[in-house]
Structure formats: C-alpha cells, structure tokens
Design the sequence.
C-alpha cells in the first residue's frame, strides 16, 4: 500500500488529503483565537480577526509550498524565488493591514483601546502568519526529501537487482560454454584412441563419464568444495596420462585443504587443460607441474608446462581461458591476481584468490 503524500497538490485536488488539511486549519484557527484572546474579553473581535487572518495564512502557505518551493527553490531558480517571495510578502502584509483596519472599523467602531493587545502590532501578526507558513514549508521540504530518498533507494535497488540478474545470466552463459568446450577436447582424445583401436578406450570413456558427471551436475552451482575440484583435476590428469603415455611427466602437489573451502566450479581445470593442449614436448617429454595450496585463507594455484615459443601461436587464447578470465572478474573482482608468462622453456600460470571463503559466501 503506497503512502499518501500530504503535500501532493494532485492528491489534495482529488480529496484524498482534504480531511487532514481541514483539520489542520481548524487547529490553526483555534490557535489564533486562543493567542489573540490573551488579555482580551472581546470574543467577537477575536473570532472575526482570527477568521479573517486564517485565509490569508492559507493563501500564503499554499502559494509557498505548491508554487514557490517546487517551481523555483528546488529547481535552483533562486532569483525568481526571491522576487516572488517578496511579492507574496507584500500581498500578505497588505491583507493583514486590511484585516486589522476592517475589524477596528466594523467591530470596534474605531475604539482602539478595546482592541486586543496581540492584534495591534502589525509586525507581530505578520511574523505569526509566516511562522505557520514556515513550519508547513519545512515539513513539506522534509517530506519531499524523504520521498526522493525513498525513490532513489528504490531505483538503486532496481539497478542492483538488474545488475545481479545480468551477472547471473552472464555466469550461466559462461558456465554453459565450459561443457561443450571441455567435451570437444576430450572427445578428440577418445577419437584418436578409437582409431588406434586402443584397449584403453573403455577406461578413457569411464573417466570421461566421471568428469562429465561433475561438469553437468556441479557447474550450475554457485560454488563447490575445493577438494572436489582438485579430485577432478586428478581424473583429468589420469585421462591425459593415458593419451600421452610415456611422453608425459606430471607433478601434482596439493597442501591440506579444508573441507569447507569452496570455489566457483570449473575454475581451475581449464588452466590444467590449457597446459596439456598447448604444452610442448621438449627432449621427448611434456613436463607439467601443478600446485594447489592454501595460505592465510588465500588460494595459491600454479601450473607450469614445457613450452617452445616458436612452436605455438596462441597459448592464453581460446574459449576456455577467456571464459575463465571473465568468470574470475564476475566471481572474485578485486580479490584475485592472474599472471601468465613465459620464462626459459616454461609457460607459467599463477592464480591467487584472496579470502576465498569470504568471497564465495
């Protein structure tokens, strides 16, 4: 249910806030009657004077809150605001003078001594009128600021929700890319063994099915256990060991990983896959070294593979690595460092994710 704005002119015209406004001005009339009756017993004069002063106060107040403030003050048209405020002051002053003299002539018959003391001072009456106007205007500005703050907050929430939806859609798209990319590379391996009619083909298919089970059912999760990711890296290495046979020399080191440490799914495997795909056989060996460890709640991941610069065209390109870079930016923005470089006959990838447990919550 939306909140009714007491200072909305359209709602006042439709009558939604009219009862409140009527009640407010009745209270102001009683305030005037009580105030001007101080040291006076002339109830007729006080009644007529208060009744005449009330519409002047209403006109001054409504012109201020519905015209001067929204059209000039809030729009920073300060020159016109000052000019029209001065015109309104002249009108209010003239109206007050007319009321004072009208009551003096028509009710008191020029008997100034019977005039209530609080109504004699023009300046005092003017200040009283503008005191009411100022209080209402202040409440109006506070209400407008509150309304704008609420609207800004709602707009901010909508923008954040839209950004979150876009992020989730992009992550979903990137995750979906992983499956065909990974499957394509592994099927190429199976195809090669099938052509050779290798007896290892069934074993490769079995290991592939385990990996596909992980990819299909885990990749849609926001996070998986880091230990599960490591275990499937081992299975991938076993697949490649069958393919490369004696040519491959792999070192895979992991430190003790906590059971509750989580990571975005399929975040590390593509780097390992890239090492096998683009690694170079040097002196009859494809050497690959993989390290995964935790240090001060930071994940340290390193992959080294033997590499001949003149043998490969693009090492860090392709769908897989570019995909992972985008996912890193979406999942761990500002909390990760990724470095890839060539040194001697090694191509090295180093990924560090700080506060990995906090960033995945």
Sequence:
């Amino acid at each position: 249910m939306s909140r009714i704005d007491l200072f909305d002119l359209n709602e006042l015209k439709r009558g939604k806030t009219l009862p409140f406004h009527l009640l407010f001005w009745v209270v102001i009339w009683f305030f005037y009657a009580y105030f001007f009756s101080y040291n006076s017993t002339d109830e007729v004069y006080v009644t007529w004077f208060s009744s005449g002063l009330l519409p002047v106060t209403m006109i001054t107040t409504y012109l201020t809150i519905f015209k001067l403030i929204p059209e000039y003050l809030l729009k920073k048209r300060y020159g016109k605001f000052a000019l029209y405020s001065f015109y309104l002051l002249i009108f209010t002053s003239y109206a007050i003078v007319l009321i004072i003299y009208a009551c003096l002539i028509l009710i008191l018959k020029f008997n100034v001594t019977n005039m209530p003391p609080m109504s004699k001072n023009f300046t005092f009456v003017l200040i009283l009128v503008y005191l009411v106007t100022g209080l209402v205007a202040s409440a109006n500005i506070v209400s407008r600021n509150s309304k704008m703050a609420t609207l800004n907050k709602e707009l901010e929430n909508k923008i954040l929700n839209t950004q979150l939806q876009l992020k989730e859609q992009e992550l979903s798209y990137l995750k979906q890319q992983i499956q065909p990319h990974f499957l394509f590379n592994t099927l190429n391996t199976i195809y090669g063994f099938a052509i050779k009619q290798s007896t290892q083909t069934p074993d490769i298919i079995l290991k592939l099915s385990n990996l596909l089970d992980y990819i299909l059912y885990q990749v849609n999760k926001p996070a998986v256990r880091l230990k599960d990711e490591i275990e499937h890296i081992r299975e991938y290495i076993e697949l490649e060991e069958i393919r490369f046979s004696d040519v491959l020399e792999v070192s895979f080191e992991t430190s003790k990983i906590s059971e509750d440490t989580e990571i975005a799914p399929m975040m590390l495997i593509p780097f390992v896959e890239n090492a096998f795909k683009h690694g170079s056989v040097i002196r009859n060996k494809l050497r690959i070294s993989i390290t995964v460890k935790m240090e001060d709640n930071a994940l340290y991941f390193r992959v080294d593979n033997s590499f001949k610069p003149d043998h490969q065209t693009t090492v860090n390109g392709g769908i897989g690595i570019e995909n992972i870079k985008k996912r890193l930016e979406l999942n761990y923005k500002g909390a990760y460092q990724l470095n890839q470089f060539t040194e001697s006959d090694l191509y090295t990838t180093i990924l560090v994710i700080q506060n990995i447990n906090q960033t995945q919550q």
